[in-house]
Amino acid sequence: MIVFDLKCSAQDHVFEAWFGSSADYEDQAARGLLTCPMCGDTQVAKALMAPAVAPKGNSRPAAVRQPESDAAPVAVTGDEARMRELMASLAQAQAKVLEGSTWVGRGFAEQARAMHYGEQDRVSIHGEVAPDEARALIAEGVEVAALPFPVIPPEAKN
Predict the structure, then answer these.
(1) What is the model's pTM?
(2) What are φ and ψ of residue 5, in 5° steps?
(3) Cα-Cα-Cα-Cα dihedral sign, residues 102, 108, 112, 113
(4) If 0-12 CB within 10 Å is exposed, 13-18 middle and 19+ buried, where does residue 11 land?
(5) Closest CA relative to residue 9, chosen from 40, 34, 35, 44
(6) pLDDT, tens digit (0-9, with 9 covering 90-100), for 53-93
(7) In this structure, what DSSP letter does residue 63 have?
(8) Which terminus of the chain has a smaller tally of CB atoms within 10 A, N or C?
(9) Pairing mode, if any, of strands 102-105 and 125-127?
(10) Is residue 1 predicted with pLDDT exceeding 50?
(11) What's the CA gap between 94 and 110, in Å, rounded?
(12) Which residues have C-beta within 8 Å of that of residue 68, sequence separation ≥ 6?
């Protein structure tokens, strides 16, 4: 997994997003699948971020990423460890939910609609849709939910 800071063009919101790889980010960006969680803007790009450099074993806690303003660096606190625990718990919960689910890739919208309208049996599926298509599914009353973390398609796993 890799984490990037992303920034929307509408209101300059900066937020974190997790991807399976840099190529996954590039693919999702090219297909317009990235959306600002605060305002819904689909014009999203990587924000400036400091490189992650591991500290020496005998060093003090490092300063965290410097904001783009002239603000002073913030020291790493116990909150970072708690946040990592929460993220790990959320990732485990998502993995558990997806255990009984079938990956349908880009056929998600079509299959979700078919189940919604009774054209096929209801089963747990997950896949990919563009933000506009997800909004259209919700407007139709199709039960869908965004996953907090990207999913690596089965064919992409080693």
Answers:
(1) 0.48
(2) -85, 130
(3) negative
(4) exposed
(5) 44
(6) 555 555 555 444 544 555 555 555 667 778 888 888 888 88
(7) B
(8) C
(9) parallel
(10) yes
(11) 23
(12) 47, 48
